[in-house]
Design a protein that fits this description.
Layout: H1 3-21, H2 27-33, E1 36-37, E2 43-44, H3 46-52, E3 57-59, H4 62-70, H5 74-79, E4 84-86, H6 93-99, H7 102-112, H8 133-158, E5 167-172, H9 181-197, E6 206-211, H10 219-236, E7 245-250, H11 255-261, E8 267-270, H12 282-288, E9 292-295, H13 301-308, E10 314-315, H14 320-329, H15 334-338, H16 341-351, H17 364-372, H18 378-397, H19 399-411, H20 418-430
Parallel strand pairs: 3-4, 5-6, 5-8, 6-7, 8-9, 9-10
Antiparallel strand pairs: 1-2
Helix pairs in contact: 7-8, 8-19, 9-10, 9-16, 16-17
Amino acid sequence: MPRHMQIIYAINAQVLTEARQRAQFSDAQIANVSLIDENGGRRVRMGQLAFVGSHSINGVSALHTELMKKTVFSDLHKLYPDRINNKTNGITPRRWLMQCNPALTKLIAERIGPEFLDNIDLLQGLNAHAEDRNFQTQFAAVKRDNKVRLAKLIKDRMGIVVSPDALFDVQIKRIHEYKRQLLNIIQTVAAYDDIRAHPERDWVPRVKIFAGKAAPGYWNAKLIIKLINDVAKTINNDPSVRGLLKVVFLPNYNVSLAEVIVPAADLSEQISTAGMEASGTGNMKFMANGAITIGTMDGANVEMHKEVGDDNIVIFGLTTDEVNEKRAKSEVPRSVIDSSPRLKEALETISSGVFSPDDPNRYRDLIGGLYDHDWFMVARDFDAYIAAQAEVDRLWSDQRRWGAMAIRNTARVGYFSSDRTIRQYAEDIWDVAAPET
């Protein structure tokens, strides 16, 4: 037996003895905490090995930490109850506010003083100015200038003309089914149908902006990118829409592109299936730059909701427990789709080839998956998402209310600074003393 395996077996013997004698674990629990998987040939469980070999294990959001305790490391957590702790992710305000949005940084410094540049928690001082009409006007002017800059980039790269006066509705992140870009584009199709069916209504003009990359072999992710582009081609060239809705997928997504998009966003799409996003940091970047979040109670959205309060974020959808309950029941979602006329119409439009006349069957299997299993709860969360987007329209129509919400989001982003995260690592895990000031 190789030397390293002898060491692993010796460690495992110590762990299992402790589990049996001290914790009085059952045979099933012993099997769960074992470093060796005995099913179908012996294999080392690297996750368990890392757990027992570490003095501290942390989740990257409060929800993620609790899920680790309850699911993947449930029995190990019972054996070592003080080992798992939470360290919510953070972003650096130097890049995601000061560097990418110098005009907003200058405005804030003029209003509350420059001390926040070294202590981001001092942004809380903006709360007192959220209802100030003059400051709202200045804050909105900075946002519009950033939107003009992004609109120029979109025109230069894509040849698509968008209005900086429209609501910039942004979802930029890795393309993955659990992040639910599919839910977003299906809602876009439903909005397209609504605008054409009811041209007399006072619609809020929107620009739907997508960006992100898919793993090379991830077929459905690449198909979703193709769908977004096909929908964009149809909507952007339909004169009956009258420019009220535009769709843009910006290719070659990277940090430099994000630094242009993030300061220009009005609405931040954080709509992952509850329980599947460990933390996420894009939500924090948007928050710092005064975007309003529409999102599920997933990842760090839970803590963002706590920081900004009910009135400054738009929350919708199933909770983690509700998602798990529906999956456990193995419910077929067809009845959900049949009971939602707008969802059913949008799905039929996509699957019938309206957006892919060159290949009418291109999206049939993608949409069929929503009827068969809907693992990521796209169909089940659709009506709640539609209602949340209608609430966004209502909020946007009251620009004073929207302006106050945007300012409060920037004001309360301090908790999500990587400075706080690293300080917690230093104090609670690394046992590193803070430098003297």
